[in-house]
Amino acid sequence: MGKIKTSWDLYVEEALPKLESRKMFAPLRPMNISIAEQAEGARTNLDEDEYQTYQGIQPWDRLASQIQLPQIFFQRLMNGLELTSKNEREEHEIISSNQEKQFKKLTLFAGNDFLGLSRHPTIAKAMAKAAMEQGTGPRGSPLICGYTNYHMALESALANLKKKEACLVFTSGFAANMAVMVAIGNLVPVLAAGRRPAKEEKVAIFSDALNHASIVDGLKIAEQQGGVKLFVYKHCDMSHLDSLLTKCKNKRKVVVTDSLFSMDGDIAPMRELAQLRKKHGFLWVLDDAHGTFAWGKNGGGLAEEFNCEYDVDICIGTLSKAASSLGGFAACSKIWKQWIQSRGRSFFFSTIAPIPLAAASYASVVVAKKEAWRRSEIRNRMKEFHALTGIPVKSQIVCVIIGDIMEAIKVNKEILQAGFYCVAVGPPAVPPNTARIRLTLTAVQTTEDIKRIAALISKYVKFQVPSYIDSSNYISARI
Predict the structure, then answer these.
(1) What pairing do the DSSP bridges indicate for beta strands 420-421 and 103-108?
(2) Do 327 and 353 contact (CB within 8 A), yes or no?
(3) In this predicted structure, what is the pLDDT of residue 228?
(4) 72-101: average pLDDT
(5) Could you tell me the domains of the chain?
């Protein structure tokens, strides 16, 4: 049985012929790249059964949580000179000239390698094999000659993971968000065919107040195109969103939100959003950058975790976090894929990822899906951290709000001295007076790591949950 088309699919289908009539439709140009030693017509498709996976942590996994800082840089952190540009320039010259020989070993609590796949041999072998067979060059734009069977296999795997008809890969998650926002904003101008659209004709887009910068920047461009009316709803406030949707007279409505907010560690109210979608019929665009591979039985992300995969219309994600690769994607219907590839500027004005990177990303999808124990280990670290600190940990991202950036740097200095690497985050990444210590919990950290860092933070920070904020969505701390 074929897919039932939504009103949005029909809307895009109405717009696509307008592009075609203006010779503006941008078709992908699939290329099958053969291996030099193979005879013509030999099989070059990727087969996930060929990828070796493991059950339980392996020796190389622990390496994914270990880093070494040049001693000169580490000392600058200790001296409170992190924000001094002159020192950075001088350090760079010393390090790049190989004069710096000493290093400080630290356990990583700041990266986004949530599953610990960055040292996985299966992924490394897939990348090396593709590089040996195909070289390292990206070949070109996906609309010219860069779109290969490796990229198509990756898209197919991601579409299956997200329970969508199709998928489009990008050079980054930032580019994916930008392209989707701009493509949505271009619908009305294309259909208006040169005339100025009426206010009620515009697409009304409702964006969470704490959405990622890539969404915000994409929406700014979408607004400039003249076909979008933008609304910002209070962070994760479904009553406010419902009220805005109810009052809005525009026929076409879009809701866009992060699934897991990277600077607060809280999760969007997925079930409530699914209910509001049924009530208002909006297009639901979900940025699942921090949820993909790390959440859900199969790594399908937070939509899978909350059983609302089919409610999400366009799911945007990244390959640079839990997949330990690089790139982004948008999983959607076939008709939306065609529209985004034609009107998403950050897609068709970018060179596609090199084949070895596409091969590594495909291997990451396979490994992340099959090694489900890694997601379980993340949950174990979350439970341990909560049990030791009392913090209501809701995701693998734990943000300890300090307030003043210099105070946050002071606390971070103590953490670094104890052998853990995390970062004090301040404006402009977060609002003024909300500087914080951001910790990421991963599958390859140990129980002992959690015990040590929890004891350290508890020594310097008194944790509390403000009474005026829902404790299920907020973590706070005071010196």
Answers:
(1) parallel
(2) yes
(3) 95
(4) 70
(5) 63-116+373-478 (3.90.1150.10), 121-370 (3.40.640.10)
